[in-house]
Amino acid sequence: MSTQTSRHTARNIFLLLLAMGVAIAVLRPALSQDQTTKDKTEKTTPRDSTDVSGAKTFRYYCASCHGADGKGHGPVAASLKAEPADLTMLSQKNGGKYPSDHVLYVLSNEGQESVHGSKEMPVWGPIFRKSGGGDQNLGRLRSHNLTDYIKSIQAK
Q1: Cα atoms in the 13 Å half-sphere on the side-chain side of 110
Q2: β-bridge mates for residue 117, sequence order
Q3: What is the largest CA-CA distance in the chain?
Q4: CA separation (Å) from 105 to 35, 48, 54, 68, 119?
Q5: Is the pTM of this model over 0.70?
Q6: Using one digit for the tens of pLDDT, what is the confidence trace for 70-99?
Q7: Burial of 148 (0-12, 13-18, 19+ CB in 10 A)
Q8: CA within 20 to 30 Å of 137's CA: 8, 32, 105, 126, which one?
């Protein structure tokens, strides 16, 4: 690997880690406010719990880039190489039909979706994978619930 490629890779990893840190710092107060009225047993993250609701999973894993409203203007969007997609327009861009299969495909990282990482190091790790390490059934459930949630925020 060339020195230039190594520097580029190191820079991208640094930017990703920086973006994730900013997202956590920005979103943590909002997530904490949601928790004030909930039972203390619900304070685990979606990764650590069996609470896999689509809305909660979206807030935790997607909102930092795609925004709380799904329109692509999350707090770390400006630091990314590619602009995050407006997830509310998926149906409209697909002839009025929500592309559930494609959304599941992107979440599971089965392809080479470079925006969401490679198979070797996806941004979310095994959280949404259908195969490979982790609880595969829980990963599928998260993916399906998140896909349904994204469907619910489609522009009319």
Answers
A1: 12
A2: 122
A3: 53
A4: 31, 23, 16, 22, 12
A5: no
A6: 999 999 888 888 889 999 999 999 999 999
A7: middle
A8: 32
